[in-house]
Amino acid sequence: MIPVHSAANRRNGRTENRKNRRFSYAAFRHHIGGLRSAGVRFALGYAVLFWVSAVMFLSVIWWGTAGLLERQVEASVSADARALSERWTDGGLSALALTIEDRLEDNVDDDALYLLVDPHGQRVAGNLSAWPGDVAMSGVWYQLTIRRAGSRGIAEVQAFDLPSGYRLLVGRDVRGRTNLRRLLTDTLLWAWVVITILTLVGALLVRNMFRRMISSIARTTSAIAHGDMGRRMNVSGRGDELDEVAEAINEMLDRIARLMDGVKQVSNAIAHDLRTPITRARTQLEYAALHAPDEAALRMAIENGVNDLDNITTVFEALLRIAQIEAGSRRSAFASFDLVTVLQDIVELYEPVAEEQEIRVVPRMPERISFYGDRSMIQQAISNLLDNAIKFSPHGGTITVSAAIGPDLSHDGKSPGQATTIAVTDEGMGMSEADLDRASERFFRADSARNTPGSGLGLSLVQAIVQLHGGILQFVRRSPGLSVEMQLPISGKSKEAPETDMKQDSQSSHHQDRSVMIQPHI
Amino acid sequence: MRILLVEDDPTVRSFVAKGLTETGHLVEQADNGKDGLFLAVSEKFDVIILDRMLPGGIDGLRILETLRAQSNATPVLILSALADVDDRVAGLKSGSDDYLTKPFAFSELLARVEALGRRGRNEAAPQTKLEVGGLEMDLLSRSVRRDGQKIDLQPREFRLLEFLMRHAGQVVTRTMLLEGVWDYHFDPQTNVIDVHVSRLRQKVDKPFSQPLIQTVRNSGYMLRAD
């Protein structure tokens, strides 16, 4: 049958296509690493989908057209046979033979085949010389190669049994139709070749498009991976998915840069500021080992050394704690608590120390402020502030610890939340404008404070804690003295740390006139 | 007391073991998790000192969890270089009674170990009355008397004295006071605790001939009647 021919053709086509694809694999692999490349997979997916649907489409056309031709032949043969058998019934053998001869004469296309044989197989009428041996059963379609008038042809025939042993063969020479079918097949095959080429071109285009989209991301990220942290993604401004990805990556990079800055600061701090106490301890111990006049002196030196080491540990822990808080990884301990109780407890803890220096600590706060945050950290922040205030207060001075609820200024009016402002105000020597700028830097100590004990990390820690709670830390100069204010949003539950970072940045300009705002370091 | 010390660092181990032995304790040592677990489950100790990170596949927390799963209530002190608040919480959650971070002062460790050993012994009966020397504390009426004379204390002073009396005869460090009386888990830079103790002394000791609250150099305080 004809489909055999076409199937062979298709198989040829497939090998050809596979060759093509193998070739393009090699090219792809050469470019961006074969199937591991998402661009190639994307393009291949596109190509396969397009190609398969085109082939299905062509197949449907092929089967539709070729099948229609076949069905037409079968329908006309059946109609013919029915008409002839009616003739037999009406007029007997002679009428039938006559009709067959008439039909053959009328047949312009010369494609009709008839053969009427008697019970002995002798031809009675028709244009075939003898009953073909292959045709044994009636009512079944046979395909024959026939030799007729000197030329070979292909015919579709069916046999019919007539009464009293006569048999009738009706068929069509389908040579012309076969030619038509071949023409159709060729056309479709050519269409298929063109489609395959289009598919490959399309796949290449898709891959290139994909690569163009990805390459800017890849270029930037690999530049960053090689150490160029200043690079950022280009944002086209179209607001499409690529822009979203680019913005997300840029945000991530900003955060990473801030964290890296923090790490750098800590390591610098360790390198420079821990060296001093370590050197001091080392020198002391070494000197004692070499020159201590008696055991008591040696003991004394060792004890001093241990104290120095303890101080180093304290500084070290404070540094780590600040770094950890700034990394924003400590929101796990957040819970609701009453801020006023916490404040009162700390005031009570420090009151005796203050009283020793005749300093009054005056609490000014409402009955209750319910707050969501890390209790232990808030305690530590307030304790650091109060500690500082006591250190820098003159004898007989007053320290005010106040807490109040007000509108949250750090929200920019977007979602008018509430914030609590905790302020610790002393009447000490205060700080100069220049010192205020650096007040919460790690290890920064104003010149006037060199002689008081402390590590210079207290305010850095407060700053980190305030930032963790999404608040802002500000210093307001009084005459005399200094007021340190922590403004903490009360509805901190739903807020995320990075968001608050940005808010703080945008806020800083608003308050520049009356106080110094501390920019987050991280 | 019989103390089990599980610690892999030989210097720290021998230092702690020596210090504890010198103060009259019996110390068993293990330098890895496997031996530590074996000793902890097979013998009876008053206190177990457990390093968190141990070689041998079984770390301190695993030992602790295994002990607690067998309803072994021996007081456990975790000794760890993991100083993070979360680590501390993890340690206490898995059933430890105290948590001390490295580096530590031996006096701090000793004070805490002795407090733990004491607690293990007299936890049975809830007390309503504490008495040290002539000092009496009624926990129900929240009143304090010394030699029959009433002493008026602020609520916080009462709790400070109560803590000292509960640990009478033992060294109590500043950190222990800060944790036990104020529930603060950070180190205030100034000598706040000293000032509170000296205030308490004014009321408890000054009017009387014999001082009860004593300062232990380099460690902390001790309430003792001798």
Automatic annotation (TrEMBL), chain B:
GO terms for biological process: regulation of DNA-templated transcription. This is DNA-binding response regulator. Residues 2-117 form the Response regulatory domain. Keywords: DNA-binding, Phosphoprotein, Transcription, Transcription regulation, Two-component regulatory system. The keyword DNA-binding applies. It comes from the Bacteria. It comes from Acetobacter oeni. Transmembrane segments: none annotated. GO terms for molecular function: phosphorelay response regulator activity; transcription cis-regulatory region binding. GO terms for cellular component: cytosol; protein-DNA complex. The modification 4-aspartylphosphate is found at residue 51. InterPro entries: CheY-like_superfamily, OmpR/PhoB-type_DNA-bd, Sig_transdc_resp-reg_receiver, WalR-like, WH-like_DNA-bd_sf. The keyword Magnesium does not apply. The lineage of its organism: Bacteria, Pseudomonadati, Pseudomonadota, Alphaproteobacteria, Acetobacterales. Residues 127-225 form the OmpR/PhoB-type domain. PROSITE patterns: OMPR_PHOB, RESPONSE_REGULATORY. Residues 127-225 bind DNA.
